[in-house]
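Re: [ENG-882] Designed sequences occasionally contain unexpected residues at chain ends

Forwarding the minimal case from QA. Structure tokens:
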């Protein structure tokens, strides 16, 4: 995980937070969301990064949501994000794979 990938991901997300869709004004930091099943701490291996989120969506929504039992995870917006995160879609693009 490097700054170049974060910049590409921000561009891929059209300058918006991945879940709430609010435009990043540059006034607040973006949280780099990763799959805690892969890397349980605050740090990520980079391969499990899912997207760039605002801190509210990262801590208060997604963190809480993922702790729920599967049968209670019925929020379509979060399910869509988790099933097809922007970082995975970016990695699947030919330019991203070639390092451009």
């Amino acid at each position: 995980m490097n700054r170049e990938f974060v910049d590409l991901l921000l561009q891929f997300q059209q300058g918006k937070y991945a879940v709430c869709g609010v435009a990043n004004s540059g006034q607040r930091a973006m949280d780099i969301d990763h799959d805690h099943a892969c890397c349980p701490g605050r740090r990520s291996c980079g391969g499990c990064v899912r997207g760039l989120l605002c801190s509210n969506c990262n801590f208060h929504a997604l963190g809480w949501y993922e702790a729920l039992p599967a049968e209670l995870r019925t929020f379509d917006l979060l399910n869509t994000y988790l099933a097809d995160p922007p970082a995975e879609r970016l990695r699947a693009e030919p330019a991203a794979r070639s390092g451009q």
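QA comment: On inspection the terminal residues look reasonable. The chain has one domain: 3-94. Proposing we downgrade this to a documentation issue.
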